[in-house]
What we know:
- The complex is a heterodimer.
- Chain A has helices spanning 2-5, 10-26, 30-37, 42-69, 73-93, 97-126, 131-159, 162-182, 200-207, 210-226, 229-240, 245-274, 277-296, 303-328, 335-364, 366-387, 395-398.
- Chain A is mainly α.
- Chain B is mainly beta.
- Chain B is 9% helix and 25% strand.
- Chain B has a seven-stranded mixed sheet, with no helix packed on it.
- In chain B, a hairpin with an 8-residue loop joins strand 3 (67-74) and strand 4.
- Residues 1-15 and 133-138 of chain B have low confidence and may be disordered.
- Chain A binds chain B through residues 25, 28-33, 36-42, 150, 153-154, 157-158, 230-231, 233-235, 237-243, 245-246, 249-250, 252-253, 362, and chain B through 1-2, 39, 41-42, 51-52, 55, 57-58, 71, 73-83, 109-110, 112-113, 117, 119, 121.
Amino acid sequence: MQRFFRPGGQRALDLVNFFVADVQTGFGPFVAVYLTSHKWTQIEIGFALTLGTMTSLISQLPAGVLVDSIRNKRVAASGALICIITAALLLAILPAQLPVLVAQILHGFASCVLTPAIAAISLHLAGHAALGERLGRNARFASIGNGLAAAIMGATGAYFSSRFVFVLTAALCVPALVALWAVGAGPHARAQTTSRALDMSGLKRLLSDRRLLIFAICVMLFHLSNAAMLPLAGAAVTMRAGHFANIIIAACIVVPQVFVALLSPWVGRTAAKIGRKRLMLLGWGALPVRGLLLAVLPGSWLLIAGQAVSGLSAAVFGVLLPLLSADLTLGTSHFNLCMGILGLALYLGAAASTTISGGIADSAGMEAAFLALAGIGALAFAMVWLLMPETRPTEAELSLPVRE
Amino acid sequence: MAVMLAGSVARADDAPQPNPAPAPPQSAVQSVAPEDAEAILGQRVTDPDGKDIGRLVDVLVDANGQPQAAVIDFGGFMGVGNRKIAVHWSALRFNPADANHKVTLDMTPDQIKAAPEFRNPNKAASVVTPPDNNATSP
């Protein structure tokens, strides 16, 4: 197997991204379906889901600091995967109040560790100069994993048993762990690690970086516009289509993943060649286009076309979030904390997105909600265009020694 | 709420008590077979042809505890695109004797599609009533 994973752990890292995306598919909105089938009331389900979201919000920064302070990022990622196995097994075996709440907390925290840890491993493996291309591969394999897992889990969950989804989730953590340890140690492992658990001066330096603040707002606005579009499109499909609704919604989930898989490597290579900002304009610019399409497209099959546009924004976002984190923390040891800050912005935007669009859809209808989301997308695009500086480091900056 | 039917049969003796007795009345325990009364929360709901269309997730009752409407969660794939609709209690048929305990909803796909979404339990709910029950529409 070692021979298969050579050279340099790139292939192994592909598989890590593939399996981790598989594992994350079952958590998310499916938890509500699963708990409903186990006679949970709507209030109890709402509480369990909110607890998971709150855990993710609160854990972003501490998890980033934690991963920064762990020298071997594979240890951090493995710990997170073991937490996720535990959470999946708790959900599968004991769908009762306390075990489910524990599972939600475990999964929320573990995800906050896992995402930056995998990005950090990528940075160690590829180095900054080749990071764009590496992140393009990450996003490609993650979206293949995501699309496949959604299709398989959706089919088996509907015709088999919803419990099977979490058994499969726990089982898929095992190949994820094997692939993780096959990656091997990167040459940059020491450089990106701080020796202090909480580096206040580093935190100050990071937070006073104007580029980070602007990018964090861009990330928040991105998800304020983006997060509610799929659930809203799904609701529109269920309302308009009869028997085929589930197949159309499945296509709304899987088709964008196909586009992400196709576009991500190009995004990664292009970011290294022409810089980050023009790609950001492309990805952020797709948001209002998608919102408008979802608002005006008639019928339900055409909504898939509107959803396909999200593949472009998702590919750009998936590659550029970790890439800009690396740009902004070049030469420091706060890459994971920076990922945590951006993760926090992402979660805040996503949480507000669902609430705001739900309220608008309630009072003014679904088209108005899509138009509002498109408007926020246009605002996000304007923010990138007018305020976001280019962050691609120069050749000279790339060869600077690491500050500690 | 899931065991609402069980609640009505496990009640204390059936004799009406005009004044609350100072001493707690002795409660009787009756055993109810699953064929006679079923738990319905989270149960699958099918259309008249037997096709799976959703799950029963809540029951709306009046002051007497009589069920008025059921909230049914329709559609969705992996939890995306769910839509909750409140339907009049009379539109549902229960079949406790069936091993799968399926609940049947007497509505056409078009009626389900046209139904307004049930969102906030604290606001007036739009309860969908099948055509032949329009007289009892709330």
